[in-house]
Design goal:
The protein is mainly alpha-helical. About 75% of the residues lie in helices and about 0% in strands.
Length: about 55
């Protein structure tokens, strides 16, 4: 959520306070969600980009 009263530095500090474990859980949830609901075409594109790294 973006607050107008919050500066960029304050926003960054707020996100830095989130524990690494919580961030990893959030990333895992997002990956599960995208794997479940993306189209086959989009999944193929993501796979090609992943292999290119």
């Amino acid at each position: 959520m973006r607050f107008k009263w919050e500066s960029g530095k304050e926003r960054l500090l707020r996100f830095m306070k989130i524990s690494p474990l919580e961030k990893m859980k959030w990333l895992k949830d997002m990956n599960v969600f995208t794997a479940k609901y993306l189209s086959k075409k989009t999944k193929k594109i993501r796979q090609r980009l992943k292999e290119a790294r």
